[in-house]
Amino acid sequence: MFPGVVYALLAGFLGAVASSSAKLSLGADYLKGVCEMGLKTWGREDRIFQLDIESAPCDWLHIPLRLMCGGLLFTCNAVMWTFFAKALRLSSSSAQATVTTTASNFISSTFLGRLIFGETHAALWWVGISLTLSGLLILHGSANRESEPTVAKKNE
């Protein structure tokens, strides 16, 4: 049971990384803005780059970065499906693997959104995600009880 949970947690995390990669690769100008901010920060430490052409490398550099994020998207999706299939095989029920993967994906998406994009969520979002995770936890518990063998009563 334990290896199935580990694979399900990793599958959920990789799904969140894949969706973040998709947002980075298809997002309008996020990578270009990060590139410009990085060059400005680097230019402050080293006064050589204080020219007016600070953003010129970012005009073309965001394209290979987007392509790399696209490759990361496909790679993470492939590995995620592999881990999810292993979780299904090693778990006591398919519901357990699915619920664990979903919960892991929700939590990982929250942290990656905050870390990468600086996203913040309103209190109503936190209430909603708490109710969703509580429901998933109830499903997880009921899936465990259903998989336990029942003891047959002896007829006297």
UniProtKB/TrEMBL annotation:
Keywords from the UniProt entry: Membrane, Signal, Transmembrane, Transmembrane helix
Annotated SUPFAM superfamilies: Multidrug resistance efflux transporter EmrE (SSF103481)
Record's signal peptide: 1-19
Membrane spanning stretches: 65-85, 123-143
Name of the protein: Transmembrane protein 42
Organism placement in taxonomy: Eukaryota, Metazoa, Chordata, Craniata, Vertebrata
